[in-house]
Structure to design on (288 residues):
């Protein structure tokens, strides 16, 4: 089970908040010189088939993935999942629940914004591909189109900020429930960008250890938003617990400055992830 380097294990298409279709994303990955790319849309596997077909056509190795929304208290915690059964009942039910909650929550935020700004739900839908996992990025794009802010990032720093006056938190299962659902689906769980708010805001060590006990396999350490002190702490934690360390871009097309391949994962780390899957069972890739 070897995957060709360079390997980027975290990207988004228009199936969630990326700006390119899954096929366009695969073409961009190939053009960027990647050997292997994972598609990890938020709470959805709807882009897998299109991405896998285009990757096969391009001679690019494809890793099926997802970025599952979870929540620990007020903290939003993203959990990457790889090589799982996309028909697993538990995970299917939970991701449907999250996507429904996301829509209601986005409508709530838009209703609040509409009291002060010219903005409609149709504006948001105009920036959302049919069936896509909706989120603040789509509201941000609508705000940009209406001219209320200059960029997606500016929207996040102002009107869509949790303290911006219009925010509504998102329903999501706990990280521990997330790991359990991913394991139940035969997949491999890797905690996404765990130190975006620095060493002191990483999940507390006892809880992290409980995630490892539940089957968490790895930590995404090489990610542009993880702070230096956070990475040092996470590397030591990963070494102590024998966790896989990954690196990735978290590419969102034009939605974020992150560039394909800006951080990479070692082939040996990906081989370990693939071996941890109960769903792959020998086959190199269930979609090819
Ligand atoms: P939500 O899940 O709806 O709360 O929105 C969070 C998503 O917005 C994350 O998946 C990020 O990809 C995206 N996001 C967060 N901050 C920014 C930013 N400053 N610029 C662009 N996208 C962002
Ligand atoms: Fe995103
Ligand atoms: Fe994330
Ligand atoms: Zn992401």
């Amino acid at each position: 089970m070897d995957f060709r380097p360079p390997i980027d294990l975290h990207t988004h298409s228009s199936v969630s908040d990326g700006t390119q279709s899954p096929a366009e994303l695969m073409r961009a990955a190939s053009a960027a010189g990647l050997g292997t790319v994972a598609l990890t849309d938020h709470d959805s596997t709807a882009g897998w088939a299109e991405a896998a077909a285009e990757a096969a056509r391009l001679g690019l190795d494809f890793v099926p993935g997802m970025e599952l929304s979870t929540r620990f208290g007020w903290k939003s915690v993203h959990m990457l999942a790889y090589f799982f059964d996309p028909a697993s009942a538990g995970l299917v039910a939970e991701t449907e629940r999250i996507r429904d909650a996301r829509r209601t929550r986005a409508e709530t935020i838009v209703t609040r914004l509409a009291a002060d700004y010219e903005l409609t739900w149709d504006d948001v839908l105009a920036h959302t591909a049919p069936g896509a996992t909706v989120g603040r990025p789509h509201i941000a794009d609508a705000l940009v189109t209406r001219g209320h802010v200059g960029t997606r990032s500016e929207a996040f720093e102002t009107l869509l900020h949790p303290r911006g006056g219009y925010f509504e938190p998102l329903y999501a299962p706990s990280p521990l429930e997330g790991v359990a659902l991913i394991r139940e689906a035969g997949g491999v769980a890797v905690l996404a960008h765990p130190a975006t708010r620095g060493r002191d805001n990483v999940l507390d060590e006892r809880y992290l250890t409980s995630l490892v006990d539940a089957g968490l396999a790895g930590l995404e350490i090489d990610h542009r938003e993880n702070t230096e002190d956070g990475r040092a702490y996470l590397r030591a934690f990963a070494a102590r617990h024998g966790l896989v360390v990954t690196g990735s871009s978290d590419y969102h097309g034009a939605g974020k400055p992150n560039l394909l391949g800006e951080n990479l994962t070692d082939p040996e780390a990906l081989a370990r992830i693939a071996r941890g899957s109960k769903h792959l069972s020998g086959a190199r890739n269930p979609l090819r």
User: Anything to note?
Assistant: The first strand starts at residue 7 and ends at 8. Residues 283-288 have pLDDT under 50 and may be disordered. Residues 10, 12, 67, 250 surround zinc ion (ligand 4) (CB under 6 Å).
